[in-house]
Write a structure and sequence with these properties.
This protein is of the alpha+beta class. The protein has two domains: about 70 residues, Beta Complex (Beta-clip-like); about 35 residues, no CATH class. The chain is about 10% helix and about 25% strand. The chain is built from two helices and ten strands. β5 and β6 form a beta hairpin.
Length: about 130
């Protein structure tokens, strides 16, 4: 769940993106997993779903490297776009929060390096989001 003001709009990177709706100082926790609000889906549970549902989960969410489960962020979390030079970063570990890697200006698109936490991104990802 985002802990700062954000809004979604058209992105130059890919489709829809998440943008800062306030100035975000370097070091600010921007997103973190909230148990009971955000969700996880086990690969076993996902395999019981239809192909259409499986494809949507794989397109919109991420398979966490540490947990081995699909993480389903509530709200705008699935619309953050990938960048090889992101303005959000996080430590390795279970449900590590996303932190501003530098000052982020009002109206700036929030980006992450998917390769840091998403198993599927190890296969290669371009500058795009999952949504």
């Amino acid at each position: 769940m985002y802990l700062v003001k954000t809004k979604m709009r058209s992105s130059r990177i890919h489709g829809i993106g998440v943008f800062a709706d306030q100035f975000i100082p370097e070091g600010t926790v921007v997103w973190e997993f909230h148990d009971g609000i955000d969700h996880v889906i086990s690969p076993e549970t996902l395999m019981t779903q239809s192909e259409v549902v499986r494809n949507e989960v794989e397109r919109l969410f991420y398979l966490d490297k540490d947990l081995g489960v699909w993480v389903v962020p509530v709200g705008q979390g699935c619309f953050v776009n990938h960048s090889d030079n992101p303005n959000l970063t996080h430590d390795d570990g279970v449900h590590a929060p996303s932190v501003a890697a530098r000052d982020i200006q009002l109206g700036e698109e929030l980006t992450e390096n998917y390769r840091r936490y998403d198993v599927a991104s190890e296969e290669g990802v371009s500058e795009q989001n999952t949504g």
